[in-house]
Each structure stands twice: as C-alpha cells, then as structure tokens.
C-alpha cells in the first residue's frame, strides 16, 4: 500500500504549519523490522492541534500514517474529499456498518505499507489533569483480530496551541476561541513533545477470548501513560496551561 501523492504533499504542508506553531521534539522511533509491515499507532488525545503534531512527528521519522476517522470528518466539505483521496479510513461508531468498517481496517492493516493511526480515547481528554480517559477497545480489537503490532505514542504540549473551543462551530462566536488562542500560541511557541514507545506486548492474548480485548486495551493505554510521564515531569497533576473552554468532567483510570 503506497502513500498517495496527495497525502505526501499534505504532510509536507502540515510540517510547515507545525513548525510555525511551536517547537517539535520527537523521541523514540519505529523499529526497523516493523516498517513497511502492518502496524497500528495508538496515541493519547490532548488538543485540537495534536493530530497535526502527530503527523509532523511521523514525517520526521519517515512514516506517513493514515488515520481511522469518524464519518463526519470524511463527509465535511473540502476537507472530506481531501481526506478520502489521501487514503484515510472511515468508521461510524454508532452505525450498523461498524463491523464492516473494522473488517476493512484489518484488511488495510494486513496489506502493510503505511501504518494506521487512531486515538483509543475517541475524544480529547476531559480529565482535569489531561491524563488519558478510559477509552474504547477498538484499537485493541483491531490489533488482536489481525495480529497487528501496536506502537504507543505519547503527546504533550499541543494543548497549549489551540483551545478546546466548542463542540459545534456555527458562527464567529464559536470560532473565536480557536483563532484567538492560536494567535496567542504563535507568540508563545509552545514545545510539542511526541514519544514513540516500544511495541506493546499482546502475543499472549487471543482474539475473541472473553476479556482479552479489555486486557489488550489496558496494556495499550498504560504504555501510552508510561511514555507520557517523562514528557510532563514538571506537570504531574494539572497542566500549567489553563484552557478555560475545556470542560474537566472526565476521569482517567490510567493516571499514575
């Protein structure tokens, strides 16, 4: 599965946007024996800019993952057709087609080539400390059903670039928090830290065995947290950066 030309162009543009927005620090890597093979990347989700930061970090180490995206993004004007043409995969969690979508994803993973990236949490964390929320077992089930290695990715800093904002943008008042916070972030230039961890050990777990998807999910999430702790040593409890728009109604069972 080769990387579409459009996606290569868009990742280059993305790298420029991220360079403008802050300072990118990348640690860890993808093992050489996993490159070009089926691979799943699982990351924590801390802010609206972190997908762009993740793409830039992946480009720095020489990979161009495609994302497993909610259908709403792929149906959006302008962005939707670009994402589809770039090879990103669709999943509508609430639809009857979700099983078929996962089958298509497993098939894409098995073909190898570019890794597939996803956020097990399914949304930006609303935990007061911005630690990963419980999340869902989708990444774990994909890994087990296809025998696919999982590389955990930990991110910190991207939450300082753009506010959480609103769940729906219908006018200027809704868009204003994103734009004003981004402009302030340009002056501050936060540091975006991305760490690629060691592949998560799942070889003793079996697809379809009761409880194994949950166990695999817990291992993936704990691996993400293990990589996150060193990135925020000076912020072990609450983020120093305060985002007044982000609700803090969530909880993290993985908090160390």
TrEMBL record:
Q: Which InterPro entries match?
A: Plipid/glycerol_acylTrfase
* CDD domains referenced in this protein's UniProt entry, alphabetically: LPLAT_AGPAT-like
Regions of biased composition (Basic and acidic residues) lie at 236-245
Regions of compositional bias (Polar residues) in chain numbering: 246-256
Pinpoint the Phospholipid/glycerol acyltransferase domain residues: 39-158
Q: Where is this region: Disordered?
A: 236-256
What this protein is called in its record is 1-acyl-sn-glycerol-3-phosphate acyltransferase
State the species of origin.
Answer: Saccharothrix yanglingensis
Q: What is the lineage of its organism?
A: Bacteria, Bacillati, Actinomycetota, Actinomycetes, Pseudonocardiales
């Amino acid at each position: 599965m080769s990387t579409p030309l459009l996606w290569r162009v868009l990742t280059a543009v993305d790298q420029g946007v991220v360079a403008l927005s802050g300072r990118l620090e990348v640690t860890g890597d993808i093992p050489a024996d996993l490159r070009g093979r089926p691979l799943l990347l699982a990351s924590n989700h801390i802010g609206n800019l972190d997908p762009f930061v993740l793409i830039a970090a992946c480009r720095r180490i020489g990979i161009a993952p495609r994302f497993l995206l909610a259908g709403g993004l792929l149906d959006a004007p302008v962005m939707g057709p670009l994402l589809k043409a770039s090879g990103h995969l669709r999943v509508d969690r609430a639809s009857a087609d979700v099983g078929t979508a996962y089958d298509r994803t497993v098939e894409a993973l098995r073909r190898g080539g570019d890794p597939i990236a996803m956020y097990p949490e399914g949304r930006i964390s609303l935990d007061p400390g911005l630690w990963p929320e419980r999340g869902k077992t989708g990444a774990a089930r994909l890994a087990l059903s296809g025998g696919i290695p999982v590389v955990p990715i930990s991110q910190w800093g991207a939450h300082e670039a753009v506010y959480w904002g609103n769940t729906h943008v219908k006018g200027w008042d809704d868009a204003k928090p994103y734009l004003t916070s981004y402009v302030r972030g340009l002056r501050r230039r936060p540091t975006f830290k991305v760490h690629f961890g060691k592949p998560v050990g799942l070889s003793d777990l079996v697809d379809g065995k009761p409880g194994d998807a949950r166990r695999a999910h817990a291992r993936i999430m704990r691996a993400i947290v293990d990589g996150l702790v060193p990135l925020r040593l000076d912020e072990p409890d609450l983020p120093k950066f305060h985002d007044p728009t982000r609700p803090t109604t969530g909880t993290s069972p993985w908090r160390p």
